[in-house]
Input
Amino acid sequence: MKSKKIVIFMLLVLVLVFSVEALAQAKKIDNLGRYTFARVRGTIPTPEVMKMLVDRYSADIKIGFEMAGYGNLYQPFIDQLKAAQFEDTTWEIGETVEWMLFRSGGKLKVTEKLEWAGKKPVEVFAIKVKEGYKTYTFIIPKPCGNIALKGMVEEIPPAICSLNVSPAKANINDPITVDMSGTQNAKSMKVEVFDKQGNKVATKDLTPEAARWQTKLDKPGEYVFKGTAFNLENKASTNPCEGKVYINYPPVAMVVPSCLDCKNAVGRPLTFDASGSSDPDGQVSRLVFELTDPDGQVIDSFTATEKPFTWEKVVYKEGTYTISATAYDNDGAVSATTEDSRKSINVTRKKFFGLIEFGPMLAHGGEDYDLPDYVAYLYIRPGFFLWLNPDKFSLTLTAGAGIPLKGDPWKTIIMGELLANVHFGSFYLGVGPGFTTKELDNYDRKSGADAVGQLGVSLFNNYLRMGHLFFEFRAPIGRNFENHHKMGLGFRFCF
Output
């Protein structure tokens, strides 16, 4: 009983297999012209006639393509038929078509797979229709005008790589644009960046939808961008596809101050020399100097556009300054900050001066001695000037001779003084002790100390030289005021 069931099962399997093979085999036909889609009149149909028939029956063709399950091919078929080249060929004995559109009893019908089994080949027109990467071959037998799909070939074209890189020359960290939008038949693309030594420095995957890439390069030199495109079969393109970019070497700035420890340099021109700046692959087109004060604030700047790239600057306040030089080349590249391009300088103000002062002075005479009330003197006193706090407090020390404009009994005197001065802008007030020798012999005149006061004004001050005009009054200490006081005008030159 069990063996009988196995035999029955095997017979059913064999029947099924033979049925499937029978269905898979193409139906054979050996004649045409009985069930025509469109009757072709005349003995020699032409491509023009065929195109006219297709245009006339376009609605039926659309229905027929949909019945065959190829509705997507209707529009490409109609559009490409207008410009298609009809190829005269034959449907050989034993060759098959996938389906054929015909008419039976006035109704549209579509066959399954057909094999030509006639006695001789059938003359046909062949038309190729492309959709995407597929090429469909249709045949139209000349006797009947039926439309049949003979076959399809998938033709995936090779990818053609296109790569544009811009700009061709750029500076460090400038944006570099890679454009592969001109690539054809690609599923994906790739860009690789190599330096002059052949080292890969970057890579980027792209797609036809995102075919642009922007990057930056932080080192100078020549770079090669190599592109590769891949088609739908992932086969790489073989056509040359590369671009080159030259990244400009930036210039090198160098500044040399005329001094680093600039003693007594307030008010004196300082020179900053950047003539040693250079550019490895071009020329320095301009040089920008920048001077910052001790607080880091920029107090002045200067742009030199011609060699030798120097700047002369006067500062009027002491302190530690920083001089920076920035070079620009003919391609717009900017130098980096280095120890050679940035220097600190310590500027001090001149505080100790030599001086000489001179002018007229009146010394009191005295009626008791049958002398004039006052006698004129001309005096000259060399000495020193010291700023204790510039523009606020100072000391002066002077000593010199006063020469009378009358003769006997008046004598040449020696004067000296040490004054502390308070400055109020251009004006100052000075007070301090002094000393004067006696002006007369045998007239109860004595040498002695004086209390000295000055009221003066600054005529000029360029921090290196000063000129003062002053009024001076000398009052005796420990001696008779009436006989020993003096007053005068003076001009002081500090150097």
User: Anything to note?
Assistant: Confidence is low (pLDDT under 50) at residues 17-23. Residues 194 and 201 are 6 Å apart (CA to CA). Helices lie at 2-24, 47-56, 58-67, 74-81, 481-484.
